[in-house]
Design brief:
Layout (H helix, E strand, L loop, with lengths): L3 E2 L2 E2 H17 L11 H4 L4 H24 L1 H36 L4 H5 L3 H5 L1 H8 L5
Antiparallel strand pairs: 1-2
């Protein structure tokens, strides 16, 4: 088995997967396996490891692009990726807010809205939308 294939380092993917699994375990209350995750064994948790590895993977990808096509082309690709992630974030925020509002109405539980922190969106929607655009909400 090749550890590096088609310009993708499978070792980074493997350890990112382990970090995601640890993050999952850390969010399960009273889980026995969570005692053995990075959170309990080091000064950091799996989230920092995941972010570090994501940055490492991005450096591998865009570093190669910079070597091949130059910094302008690599910068354009990075901006395109950042724009895609921004649009996905805004879309998921709207979808999440709609889902919580629907659940609050459907189950007649208005406390759902304040429980997840979208009460500002309900009380002052224009202000909340203006805050959501630069990702401040």
């Amino acid at each position: 088995m090749q550890l590096v294939r088609d310009g993708r380092d499978l070792r980074v993917d493997f350890f990112r997967g382990i970090a995601l699994f640890c993050i999952f375990l850390d969010h399960i209350p009273h889980d026995t396996l969570a005692r053995f995750t990075v959170r309990n064994l080091a000064l950091n948790d799996a989230t920092e490891i995941f972010i570090l590895l994501a940055g490492f993977a991005a450096a591998l990808v865009y570093g190669r692009k910079m070597d091949r096509a130059g910094p302008l082309s690599a910068s354009a690709d990075m901006l395109k990726r950042a724009w895609t992630l921004y649009i996905a974030h805004i879309f998921l925020f709207v979808l999440f807010a709609a889902q919580v509002a629907l659940a609050a109405i459907w189950f007649a539980r208005p406390q759902y809205i304040s429980g997840v922190g979208i009460d500002h969106l309900v009380a002052k929607p224009l202000s909340a939308i203006i805050e959501a655009v630069p990702l401040l909400y």
